[in-house]
Amino acid sequence: MTKTIIYHNPACGTSRNTLAMMRASGVEPQVIEYLKTPPDRATLCKLIADMGIAPRQLLRVKGTPYASLGLDNIDLTDAQLIDAMLAHPILINRPIVVTSKGVRLCRPSEVVLDILDNPYIGDFVKEDGEVVHAPKQPSS
Asked: Residue 122 maps to which CATH number?
């Protein structure tokens, strides 16, 4: 059985909302504050592969050294982009959630509902007041 994990930044509203949705569904995930405990190369590569995305799609631009490192250069290889994320974990976009149903970058936070065993959390109000209408529990 796959352990439920969230790669979390408590300073990020999207990450906090995602974690709250997980808890509302009855899940208490392993919380990895990835800025304090960054993934190693093998873990980061596996997360990227399991999400089915390219490393560039995981790069965070806002509030990071993305521009000063020249990461907008389209000639950079996947390995070079991964090197940058390992050297500067703030470049890893978040939150990343791992469940038995898959791995997703949960932006927006309600993407997490697609990979939870119990997505029926009712209406959820995000920190900014936006209401997420979760799927309704099926009738028996």
From this structure: 3.40.30.10
106 noted as active-site residue: no
State the Cα–Cα distance between residues 140 and 138, nearest whole angstrom: 6
Answer whether residue 114 is part of any domain.
Answer: yes
Domain coverage including residue 87: 5-133
Quick check: is 139 in a domain?
A: no
Does residue 140 sit within a domain?
no
Read off the pTM.
Answer: 0.94
The full DSSP string for 107-135 is: SSGGGGGGG-S-----EEE-TTSPEEEPP
The total number of residues written for the chain in this structure: 140
Q: Are 114 and 23 in contact (CB under 8 A)?
A: no
Question: Could you read off the pLDDT of 28-83 as tens digits, one per residue?
Answer: 999 999 999 999 999 999 999 999 999 999 999 999 999 999 999 999 999 999 99
Report CA-CA distances (Å) from 98 to 22, 106, 115, 128.
11, 10, 8, 25
Candidate list 12, 21, 96, 113, residue with the active-site label = 12
Tell me how many domains the chain contains: 1
